[in-house]
Q: What sequence folds into this?
C-alpha cells in the first residue's frame, strides 16, 4: 500500500501543473476549514441568524451544492473545462468576499450558496480533467495523493480559526479566509492558463 501511495505522489510531483493546483487546493482548504470551524458562531453573532433558523441558513449551502452539480457539465460544455475552472474560482472569490462583508442572514445565505455551488463544480470538473490526463493505471493512486495533500492543511485552518476567533471574534476569520482564497485564485489562474492553454 505504501509503495502505491509513493508512486501516486511521485507521479503527481512530476506533473508540474497538477502538482501546483494540488498545493493551491491545500491553501484553499486552509481557508475553507477555518470558515467552517466558526461558521455557526459567525452566523449567530455577525449575520444575526436566529438560533431556530440556523438549520434553514445552513441548508442554503446544500441547495447551492445541488445547483452546482446540475450546472457543472453544462458550464464545461459551454466554456471549456479550464475556462470554467477559472470562472468558478472567480465566482467563489466574489461569493466568499460577500460572505465576509455580509451582516444579514439573506445576503450571507446567498453568498454561502454560491460558494458551495462553486465548490461542487470545481470538484466535479477537476476530477473529470484528472481522469482524462492521468494514466488509467494510476488514477486511484494519483487521486488519493491529491486528496491527501489537499486535506493536510484542514486541521491547521480549523485550529488557527479557533484561536483567532477566541482572541478577535469571527469576523476577522472570514476576512482572512476571503483574502487567502483570493490569493489562491490569482495563483491558480496563472497556473491553469500556462499549463493547459
A:
Amino acid at each position: 500500500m505504501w509503495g502505491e501511495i509513493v508512486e501516486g505522489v511521485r507521479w503527481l510531483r512530476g506533473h508540474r501543473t497538477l502538482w501546483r493546483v494540488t498545493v493551491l487546493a491545500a491553501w484553499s482548504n486552509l481557508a475553507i476549514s477555518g470558515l467552517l470551524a466558526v461558521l455557526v458562531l459567525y452566523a449567530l453573532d455577525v449575520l444575526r441568524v436566529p438560533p431556530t433558523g440556523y438549520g434553514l441558513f445552513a441548508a442554503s449551502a446544500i441547495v447551492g451544492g445541488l445547483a452546482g452539480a446540475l450546472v457543472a457539465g453544462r458550464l464545461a460544455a459551454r466554456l471549456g473545462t479550464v475556462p470554467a475552472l477559472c470562472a468558478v474560482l472567480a465566482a467563489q472569490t466574489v461569493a466568499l468576499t460577500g460572505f465576509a462583508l455580509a451582516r444579514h442572514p439573506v445576503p450571507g445565505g446567498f453568498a454561502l450558496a454560491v460558494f458551495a455551488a462553486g465548490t461542487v463544480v470545481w470538484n466535479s470538473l477537476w476530477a473529470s480533467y484528472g481522469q482524462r490526463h492521468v494514466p488509467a493505471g494510476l488514477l486511484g493512486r494519483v487521486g488519493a495523493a491529491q486528496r491527501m495533500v489537499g486535506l493536510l492543511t484542514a486541521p491547521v485552518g480549523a485550529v488557527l480559526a479557533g484561536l483567532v476567533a477566541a482572541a478577535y471574534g469571527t469576523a476577522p476569520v472570514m476576512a482572512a479566509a476571503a483574502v487567502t482564497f483570493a490569493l489562491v485564485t490569482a495563483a491558480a489562474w496563472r497556473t491553469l492558463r500556462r499549463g493547459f492553454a
